[in-house]
Amino acid sequence: METPGMAAACVEGVTVWRRQGKKWQSKVLKKHQGTVEAIAFHPSEPLLVSAAKDGRLCLWKKAASLQQTLRGVKEGFSAIAWHPQGRY
User: Fold this and answer.
1) Residue 57 pLDDT > 90, yes or no?
2) Do 32 and 56 meet the contact criterion of CB atoms below 8 Å apart?
3) Are 1 and 40 in contact (CB under 8 A)?
4) d(CA 65, CA 73)
């Protein structure tokens, strides 16, 4: 698959669409155990982060494979954003 073109939070996962030729193909990335509240692409690297009510941040390499899971707060997250230069 090529690099992702679009992504959307969907219940307990993230749906990623990639264009292959003239068609769009979708894949659901699942790791959360609570509703995904926010997603954000890194500004300069092939990383996607998802934040959910389960208190986890998931880092997805090339929006395809789980690279790392970070545990946050038990109350969960409602938003996520990268620093404009991608440092934080």
Assistant:
1) yes
2) yes
3) no
4) 23
